[in-house]
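A protein record in our archive is deliberately plain, so that people and models can read it alike. The tokens are whole numbers drawn from a learned vocabulary of local backbone shapes. For reference, a complete record is included directly beneath this paragraph.
>
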Amino acid sequence: EKNVNCDDALNIVRSDFLINNCVFEETYADAFDSDFCIGEIVSSQFLRLGDDAVDFSGSMVSLSDCSVSDAGDKGISCGEGSKVVVTSFSVDGANIGVASKDNSEVNISNSELENVTYGLVAFCKKPEYGPATIHTENVFLKKYLFIHLIEEGSTLTFNNRTIYGQERDLSSRFY
């Protein structure tokens, strides 16, 4: 808690991990960052964050029974070919609820996104990777400005309805 000096509160690289029943609170930037890892985050909370709650690059991760409150940027950020499975997850307060970018795939079920500007975003930030996907089942949004923004080539399956991206150059809006 109250990490005011470091970029990420916890950054794990090329490792296996289990985060269980942990609280990340009042971080300067990202609360948890996983680079090229395999792991699981269970029953954990992310509170009042300077940037992303969880940020995955080239990782295979499952999240279950976790909550985010007041993320400075994203509740979940997946990039560089990450594969992430999310169940029973809630975000209350973020610019972006869930972002999938650069050939990443996010499968999210039984979850809620509230008080977000953008609920679900999929795009390509780094051309060497390509488009991204998000699949949802039983996901609800409350108090949002946009349900989704999906870039050309990327797809969102939102509660059994496939949405093909039509936006262009989304990365310039966020970076």
Q: What stands out?
A: Residues 154 and 160 are 16 Å apart (CA to CA). The radius of gyration is 14 Å. Helices lie at 171-174. The mean pLDDT is 95.
